[in-house]
Amino acid sequence: xxxxxxxxxxxxxxxxxxxxxxxxxxxxxxxxxxxxxxxxxxxxxxxxxxxxxxxxxxxxxxxxxxxxxxxxxxxxxxxxxxxxxxxxxxxxxxxxxxxxxxxxxxxxxxxxxxxxxxxxxxxxxxxxxxxxxxxxxxxxxxxxxxxxxxxxxxxxxxxxxxxxxxxxxxxxxxxxxxxxxxxxxxxxxxxxxxxxxxxxx
Length: 201
Prior knowledge:
Elements: H1 3-6, E1 9-15, E2 24-25, E3 28-29, H2 48-55, H3 70-79, H4 83-86, H5 113-117, E4 123-129, E5 147-151, E6 172-174, E7 177-180, H6 188-200
Parallel strand pairs: 4-5
Antiparallel strand pairs: 1-2, 1-3, 1-4, 5-6, 6-7
């Protein structure tokens, strides 16, 4: 079973070619608990590639998400600020989640960790579900990332092979260009992994 089928990912990857600085890979996964991977002791889910990745790097084991749903939690992770400070909150349990027809996004004046690390010599790639704005001015390349490969909102918000009854057709983007619409979700996890691997290599 692939990791993508278990969860939706936003994988910001920051790489630098200078030997003294480490690569930084952040895996931000919707609906994944601490014990959901085999490296953390899950007896029924095998995640050998993730286990190897974790064993060869540094793993941080304490994280508190600033919100329980997509857009606000992503905004907080990207900026280090509570979602209310960037205006990505709402009045209901799903408050602040951008829909497939949203016109807003992470405010242009918000600073992400990608923007902060760029002057330190890091190159960055965001792979996966972005979900903090789908207009060009809100996409990763407008928020400090050098490159983006992914979908702008959740797989259940747009027409795809998995969801036929939606109005909007889910796109796959490279930076701000639509590569495929509707995106082929059956091969997306392999394409995400290949893009991330190519970037780090």
